[in-house]
Amino acid sequence: MTSVSRIFKNGIVENNPLFVQALGLCPALAVTTSASNGLGMGIATTSVLICSNVVISLIARFIPQNVRIPCYIVIIATFVTMLEFVLAAYVPALNQALGIFIPLIAVNCIVMGRAESFASKNGSFLSAADGLAMGLGFTAGLVLLGGIREIFGTMSLFGFVISETFPQTIAMILPPGAFITLAFLMALINYLRRRTA
Amino acid sequence: MELFALAFSAILVNNFVLSRFLGICPFLGVSKKIETAVGMGIAVAFIMTMASALTYIVNVYILEMLGLGFMYNIMFILIIASFVQVIELLLKKVSPVLYEALGVYLPLMATNCAILGVTVINRDMSFNFIRSVVHGFAGGVGFLLAIVVFAGIRERIEHNDILPHFQGFPIALLAASMMAIAFMGFSGWIL
Fold first, then answer.
1. Residue B183 and which of A3, A145, A170, B189 are 20 to 30 A apart at CA?
2. How many angstroms away from the CA of A76 is the closest CA of chain B?
């Protein structure tokens, strides 16, 4: 198996940032009121992750060990600021829906974690692949979470109505629904992992 | 009265953890024991208050005046990170016990989204100085309340017989969802 495909398997399945590592929970719980919001947040995080991974992998050896964390923070925050302007200009509706969680990508544990544990030790191509893989894993988790909440909460998926008559459980798109859905998804994944192991 | 309403809303109605989903990482990470949860909650409340004050001053008197408002995110993170560093040195000297108890979560405070979150909300709502500080303090008290109650619940759960797949994170999240339902009872009181 080549190392790129191993990176993808690691990011999407074996070390899924959301379900296995339990990182980035704040945006995962807050913005997943619908599948499309989850998808938007996932893509936004992925783009920051790829850019910051590439830049950090390129300059990591010039940064003194002691000040590396502040340097990473500034690099990540710069990309987040750029993303904020891009979103505000081209997809204002999504920007409105995600709100405060766009600037907060800068303190997302996933981005910082990959910078520290992968990008600072590997080449730029592998770091870009790692950013894409982890981002896709996170996006998949968000879409799943958002999809389930949207189906139960509003009986629709990606905005398309599934059933007019089936009762809607409003609590699922309110805060408690986020915790419950993630709890059951994590338990399900624990179950699947134990069965295959 | 208006300030009281703001504080009440930040503590209970729009609780930072249970309804805004900010600061979930320390909420789940440092809530295994009540003592450490209290320490963490007080530290977060203190830093949220101070960060609200500092970022307000920097935002209004430096960034806005120079027309650099768009740099707020980078600036706020740096302010919070350096402030946390100062607190860390201070705690090490003044209260080594608390320093030990907080452990790795103290430096991680720099990337705590509750703290950056409150400063960004203050800026988005263009609160004045007093309101920013009150909002930061009340948000911190809300965090303290949520994490201490949650730690109490988790101490009880610890001794229960739980399905193997639900042990750890899933059961903690279920407990958090029950708390969120309880806090939903406050919604609609004050917006």
1. A145
2. 9
